[in-house]
Amino acid sequence: TDAFEFVDASTGPLGQGVAMGVGMAIAEKRMSLKINKGNTRVIDNYTYVIAGDGCLQEGVALEALQIASVMKLNKFILIHDYNKIQLDTKVSDVSNVDLLAYFKAIGFNVIEVNEATYLNVNKAITEAKKSDKPTYIMVHNIIAPFT
């Protein structure tokens, strides 16, 4: 309805927000198939998840993302704040995963944003909405750039 333009959900430990987002996208897909008839779109929303580097090292997140791909959740958009820092160290100290290659390998639409501006991220989201796959948007960022 017009009363609810979005639903905000906060989560606990690393990775759980990604899994919750995939669950919400599954619910949207199932409900839209059941409720939407013809050109009438009662259920027609996207699920956006903003995740940091540490979130994408967690098993619960990685397993959920594979489900998103298998289920072809094209309205699931993962925005990764890629600053190369996890809890208390550089990501490169604990992981050598090429995330762009990983997401391509599991069947995601992959978009890379080299400059973290509103316009660039908005353009990437607009592009993501054209895909028939879930989308991973890697946004290169610098943690606390002016401190």
Protein architecture, described:
The protein starts with 15 loop residues before the first helix and ends in a 7-residue tail after the last strand. The protein is 34% helix and 16% strand. Helix 1 (16-35) runs parallel beside helix 2. It has helices at residues 16-35, 59-70, 99-105, 118-128, and strands spanning 47-52, 76-82, 109-113, 135-140. Strand 1 (47-52), helix 2 (59-70) and strand 2 (76-82) form a beta-alpha-beta unit. A 4-stranded parallel sheet has the order 1-2-4-3, sandwiched between helices. The protein is globular, with a radius of gyration of 16 Å. The protein is built from 4 helices and 4 strands. The longest helix has 20 residues, at 16-35. The chain is an alpha/beta fold and 147 residues long. The protein has one domain (16-140): Thiamin diphosphate (ThDP)-binding fold, Pyr/PP domains (Rossmann fold), CATH 3.40.50.970. The mean pLDDT is 94. This is Transketolase. Residues 6-143 form the Transketolase N-terminal domain. GO terms for molecular function: transketolase activity.
User: What would CATH call the class?
Assistant: Alpha Beta
Q: Which geometry do the CA atoms define? A: globular
How widely separated are the two ends? 42 Å
Structural class: alpha/beta
What portion of residues belong to β-strands? 15-25%
Count of the separate structural domains: 1
What is the tally of helical segments? 4
For the CA atoms, what is the radius of gyration? 16 Å
What CATH architecture would you give?
A: 3-Layer(aba) Sandwich
GO molecular function: transketolase activity
Domain Transketolase N-terminal: 6-143
Pfam family, one: Transketolase_N
GO cellular component, one term: cytosol
